[in-house]
Amino acid sequence: MLINFLLFLYIFEICQCLQRPIVIAHRGTAYLPELTLASQSMAHAYGADIIEIDVCLSRDNQLIVIHDIYLDGVTNVSDIFPNRNRSDVLNYVIDFNLYELLRFYLSTLNETIELLFGLNRATGRQRQLLIEIKKPEYHSKYNKSISSIVLATLNAYNLTRSSDPIIVQTFYIEELMYIRKNLGSQLRLLALMTWNYIQESSSDYNFYRSEEGIRNLSKIIQGLAPNHQLVVNYDPNGAIIGTTNLTKWAHQYNFSVYPFTFRQDLFSSNSFEELVKYFWHTVQVDGFITDHPDVIL
């Protein structure tokens, strides 16, 4: 009976992969502290196809896995290093060296890569890694080319080809052009998209989500990762009233579309299920960036 049950699970997983969207685990999972090795491991165990992380640079040019360019949201930095904050009261990753940052149990990109490959080998299940390069423009103000350091790190692991289990994304779309044209990377690239007023970068998202803008990216990137509110239109009460042209145009130019961020705890269980169904069956997105990969699966 046990053998039959295990065989059923194996076949079920194969069938699911053939019929379901790609599931990208945003920062690992929402059930453990974000972006920790434990959270990434949980996402791998749940069966997420891709695990998404963010990287920033330390003062000594080490790639730190953390969502923001400052430490205050996820560490007790003010207790450990008093008076290291800037005039805005925040403590920035770039002001600390690796030795100092490891006191907060943050991981490095190297550790994440080795964790992923180790889990892939141990389980026989090939998950991929999606690396978001945080604020390249900010890093360039300190004469740091974070993209060059990311690619150099990946090159050390022989991760250079489009067929390798690595994808790179950033909100600064011009940086993707730089990565492709100037740095000569063959890795798959995703363009993150939000609204201009958020000032996530200097990129003009209004242009890049137009048909002309998407066409201009067709030789640079392989997919779009837009805020889900750019993919569908909502009424003032949050009900979907139709789709935008973004997914249609993206598919027209052979891009995959992975909207973000789908969190079950922001909806009732039924409404979240209906939302996911609508995006999958009606909008026909290619996958979901989600804090709850187990729920989407």
Automatic annotation (TrEMBL):
Q: Which reaction does it catalyse?
A: a sn-glycero-3-phosphodiester + H2O = an alcohol + sn-glycerol 3-phosphate + H(+)
Question: Which PROSITE patterns does this entry report, sorted A to Z?
Answer: GP_PDE
EC number, UniProt record: 3.1.4.46
* Any Pfam family: GDPD
Which biological process terms from the Gene Ontology are attached to this UniProt entry?
A: glycerol metabolic process; lipid metabolic process
Would you say which domain of life the source belongs to?
Eukaryota
Q: Mind telling me which InterPro entries this protein's record contains?
A: GP_PDE_dom, PLC-like_Pdiesterase_TIM-brl
Keywords of the record: Glycerol metabolism, Hydrolase, Signal
Which GO terms fall under molecular function for this chain's record?
A: glycerophosphodiester phosphodiesterase activity
Positions of the GP-PDE domain: 21-297
**What protein am I looking at?**
glycerophosphodiester phosphodiesterase
Q: Which species is this UniProt entry from?
A: Rotaria sordida
